Amino acid sequence: MDQAKIRQVGQIEHGMTWLRPPPLSPAAFKALIAERGWRMADVACRWAIRPEHLSRIAADAARETKWDDGVRALPTLSRREQTAVTAARRQLVPNPPRSRQVKTGDLSADALAPENAAAGVPGRPFSWGAEDDEEDEAMAAEGDGFRYRGYLSRGDELVAVKAIEGFAREHALLVVIATRLGVDSAGGAQEQYHCESGTGEQRWFAPEQIDDGLVSNGKTRELR
Q: Which run of H or E residues covers position 189?
């Protein structure tokens, strides 16, 4: 092979590293979002996709390059800006007012209906991605605290993308062993997920805790 062809091959190989770079690992994908000061649910709102879809993207080790590029392009938020972004997201995509009878082993409450849609603010200023419409149609009627309903259920595996103090190390596998209806810090209804680590430790997680530190790996275990 002459020198001109060798240079051309080398040039093409160099170009391929830019056109087809290896994807970020699931842990690195979520870590980069956190480093930028963003929450998963807020990134999903910015990109006009469902939070569940973003979690699936994060867990996909062979995701398209455009998603990694999107994470790298996120502006870095201060803590104050992060709080403002989350507040704005909850106005843009508010929980629909609804009444629920909440019954759990340790908790019962009547008519939990958070009124958190501001007057004059449209409920949904954008459409979710077309690829999510069918699978998320039933979930759209639920509030933000129910964004994992139908996506996470008993037997589903989760991966810790960062260490959870006193419970699980980074990259540890957890399994959902139960779900329940609970109440968030603002008094709104939400679904909570009882997870068990490989050491047998158990803990309840709220949707925001899953946003911040857990992703599904798409696997389900048979539980008794």
A: strand 189-197
Could you tell me if 48 and 129 are in contact, meaning their C-beta atoms sit under 8 angstroms apart?
yes
DSSP assigned state of 58: H
* Number of alpha carbons in the 13 Å side-chain half-sphere of residue 168: 23
* Terminal CA-CA length for the chain: 64
- Please spell the DSSP secondary structure of 10-54, one letter per residue: HHHHHHHHHHSPPPPPHHHHHHHHHHTT--HHHHHHHTTS-HHHH
- The arithmetic mean of pLDDT across residues 205-223, rounded, is 88
pLDDT tens per residue, range 97-112: 433 333 333 333 333 3
Question: Which residue type is seen at 37?
Answer: G
- Give CA separation, 192 vs 112, 153, 178, 205, 212, in Å: 15, 10, 9, 6, 14
What CA–CA distances, in Å, run from 216 to 26, 137, 158, 186?
10, 20, 4, 26
61-73 as b/e: b if 16+ CB within 10 A: eebeeebbeebee
Residues 156-169 pLDDT 10s? 999 988 889 889 99
Q: Which of 172, 175, 170 is nearest to 223 (CA)?
A: 175
CB atoms within 10 A of CB 59: 19
* Look-up of token digits 């994807």: 23
Q: Are 95 and 61 in contact (CB under 8 A)?
A: no
User: Which residues on adjacent β-strands are paired with residue 178?
Assistant: 194
